[in-house]
Amino acid sequence: MARGRPKAALVLSEDERAQLASFARSRSLASALSNRAKIIVASADGETNSAIASRLQINPGTVRKWRTQFIERRINGLYSETRIGKPRSIDDERLAGLINTTLHTKPADGSTHWSVRTVAEETGISKTSVHRYFKMFGLQPHRSEHFKLSTDAFFIEKLRDVVGLYLSPPDNALVLCVDEKSQCQALERTQPMLPLGLGYVEGVTHDYVRHGTTTLFAALNVLNGAVLAECKPRHRHQEFLAFLRTIDKSVPVELDIHCIVDNYATHSHPKVRAWLAARPRWNMHFIPTYSSWLNQVERFFGLITDKTIRRGSFSSVKDLISKIDHFVASYNQTCKPFAWTATADSILEKLHRLCSRISGTAH
Question: What is the pTM for the complete model shown?
Answer without folding.
Answer: 0.70
